[in-house]
Amino acid sequence: MLKIFISNPFKYPINERLIVGNLTNFLRNKVQDDCEVSIRITGYSEMLNLARKYLFEPNNLHNVLSFAYSEVRDFLPDPDGINRLGDIVVCYEKAKDEAKAANKSLDEWLYYLIEHGAKHLLGIHHD
């Protein structure tokens, strides 16, 4: 069973149903049945802190970051048999600015960023 967990500690207005539905459709034929993905919707400050801590980029504000569990564990299966793909973190405020600049709906842009992050979790990278 595919499980998608969303953390939105700042209570940004997001369409969780759209995100879960679209991501489920995207991942359906790409992952094992027992799979988990975590999504965190955050703001500028936390996103900058993550870039500093994990990417060693002191002033680079990313719109989305992905942390694949396969890159941080010892490549051993989890003892409970669940395939944890990893975490996707989206900067809501940056996404909102980008959606406006691109003349896209915020829901559409947020999902685009989340799918982009999911591709990274699957090992699909860009130049």
Describe the structure using short key phrases:
127 residues, alpha/beta, Collagenase (Catalytic Domain), 4-stranded mixed β-sheet, 4 helices, 4 strands, 39% helix
Describe it:
The protein is α/β, with parallel strands linked by helices and 127 residues long. It has a single domain (2-121), classed as Metalloproteases ("zincins"), catalytic domain (Collagenase (Catalytic Domain)), CATH 3.40.390. Helices cover 39% and strands 22% of the residues. It has 4 helices and 4 strands. The chain has helices at 16-27, 44-55, 92-101, 106-121; strands at residues 2-7, 35-42, 64-68, 83-91. A 4-stranded mixed β-sheet has the order 1-2-4-3, with helices on both faces. Helix 1 (16-27) links the parallel strand 1 and strand 2 (35-42). Helix 1 (16-27) packs parallel to helix 4 and helix 3 packs across helix 4. The longest helix has 16 residues, at 106-121. The model has no long low-confidence stretch (mean pLDDT 89).
